[in-house]
Amino acid sequence: MFSKRKIVVLAFLLFSGFLSPKAIRAQSLSGTTGLVTIPTARMQEDGTLNFGTSYFDKKDQQYFEGTKNYVAVYVSLTFLPFLELVYRVNKPLYYHVNNYTMDQTPMVRLRLLKEKKSLPAVVIGIHDIASTTGWNTVHFNATYLVLSKKISAFDLHLGYAPRIMKAFYYQLDGPFGGVAYSPLNSLHLYAEYDSRYVNAGFQYLFLNHFSISLAALNFNSYAAGINYKIVL
């Protein structure tokens, strides 16, 4: 059940979306082009290179001994311009296991259809493609299809992530979606359902290349990040 404050945040984003006609191609805290944590069918400009780091105070992130907060560092490259490659490393905090270093998460996104007047953009993607030790070390898996469409001033996104690959924990598991808008060119606001929880947040762009993000995760924890973007 959604609480009143979650409904208020979603309604605010939906109605204030009339202020902005621009489709949003922002970097999610998880490293892909997206909203707070979910990917969208938006693609960055051809030749875009992103470097970023995020902190997740996320109580639901499953590891072998319960839930953990973690730090993620990523690099992403968009080229051709329908292909996005992301490499992310995740470091769970306060996780003391002999010989444990970092959790590596390679990700690939491919745009099947560019948005047209009567059709949405369509992207398929896979996160945490492979593990060197086995399925029980895969903690960020997602195999998904997502659609994005501008309707009036809304930038709407809807996707589905089936369980195709065996994993210990799925970053996306079932239907997900969200809405975004920009009241200013330098400010993006989001609300999303990440297949488990409702999240909301913003990204602020400055100095042409930098952005900072802050989000409420399920309205009981938070995440924050910084990103540096260049076009090659």
Report what the structure shows:
The protein has 232 residues and is mostly beta strands. The chain has a single domain (4-231), classed as Porin (Beta Barrel). Helix content is 6%, strand content 50%. The protein contains 1 helix and 14 strands; from the N terminus they run αββββββββββββββ. It has one helix spanning 4-16, and strands at residues 48-56, 62-63, 66-67, 70-79, 83-92, 103-113, 121-127, 142-151, 154-161, 174-184, 187-193, 198-206, 210-217, 221-231. The strands form 2 sheets. It has a 12-stranded antiparallel barrel with strand order 1-4-5-6-7-8-9-10-11-12-13-14. Strands 2-3 form a two-stranded antiparallel sheet.
Key descriptive features of the protein:
232 residues, twelve-stranded antiparallel β-barrel, two-stranded antiparallel sheet, 14 strands, mainly beta, Porin, globular
Quick overview:
The protein is mainly β. It is built from 1 helix and 14 strands. Strand 6 (103-113) and strand 7 form a beta hairpin.
